């Protein structure tokens, strides 16, 4: 029996698996459409070649799309959004530094600013007891109002930027990690050269484009159905060939 049938079977199998992985990426984008600061991802595929023939495709990497999301107003004084380049720096449980665009912060029991996942914001300040209001300036300086009405600067928030932010590695909980592809973090003051500014009482929304993701989802479903049909028909042809040999 010609090996071309088994070759076709293997290619259609690879295609089915690749479509499923791509479907996971699209599904994750759609599931996080309303997650603050979320960045959509796309799948990068690569052809598999041997010395003579094409052996199908495989998922080479998943790339984050770091375009700015739309901003919406918020009544919460601890909701901060980055306009332009940059990430908030947070301390992960293992001590490493993570990077996020989600600026919806909370105060923990130690009056430290934390994300919804409990990761502490890295900044050189602390919200003092008796604070009645918090306001962050575009340059990252955090101003607080105390119970007696006095105002003072409680600290400074700096941003981190990367030469290739698409090379960041998704860690989970809307946090990214630096990699060789992204380059080392460059830390600076908001509003400085190549750094975005921070908007108070604002939330950066997800940059997921619903229409393009739904179009991609429908295209994937059709392609998956075609791959399954090819696999089934090739399998049937192999079975018939085997039966003819037995006969």
From TrEMBL:
The keyword Nucleus belongs to this UniProt entry's keyword annotation: no
Domain Flagellar basal-body/hook protein C-terminal: from-to ranges: 201-244
Record's keyword terms, sorted: Bacterial flagellum
Protein name in the entry: Uncharacterized protein
Pfam families: Flg_bb_rod, Flg_bbr_C, LlgE_F_G_D1
Keyword Phosphoprotein: no
Domain called Flagellar hook protein FlgE/F/G-like D1: residue spans: 81-144
């Amino acid at each position: 029996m010609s090996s071309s049938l088994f070759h076709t079977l293997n290619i259609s199998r690879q295609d089915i698996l690749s479509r499923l992985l791509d479907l996971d990426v699209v599904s994750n984008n759609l599931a996080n459409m309303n997650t603050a600061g979320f960045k959509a991802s796309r799948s990068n595929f690569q052809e598999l070649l041997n010395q003579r023939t094409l052996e199908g495709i495989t998922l080479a990497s998943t790339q984050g799309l770091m375009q700015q999301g739309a901003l919406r107003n918020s009544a919460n004084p601890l909701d901060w959004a980055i306009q332009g380049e940059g990430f908030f720096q947070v301390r992960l449980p293992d001590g490493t530094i993570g990077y996020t665009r989600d600026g919806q912060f909370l105060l923990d029991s130690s009056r430290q600013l934390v994300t919804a996942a409990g990761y502490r914001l890295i900044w050189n300040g602390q919200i003092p007891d008796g604070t009645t209001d918090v306001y962050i300036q575009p340059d990252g300086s955090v101003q607080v109002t105390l119970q007696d009405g006095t105002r003072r600067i409680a600290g400074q928030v700096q941003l981190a930027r990367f030469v290739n932010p698409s090379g960041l590695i998704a860690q989970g909980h809307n946090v990214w990690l630096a990699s060789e592809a992204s380059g080392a973090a460059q830390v600076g003051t908001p509003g400085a050269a190549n750094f975005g500014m921070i908007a108070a009482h604002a939330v950066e929304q997800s940059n997921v484009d619903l229409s393009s993701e739904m179009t991609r989802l429908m295209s994937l479903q059709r392609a998956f159905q075609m791959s399954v049909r090819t696999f089934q028909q090739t399998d049937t042809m192999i079975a018939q060939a085997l039966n003819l040999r037995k006969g």
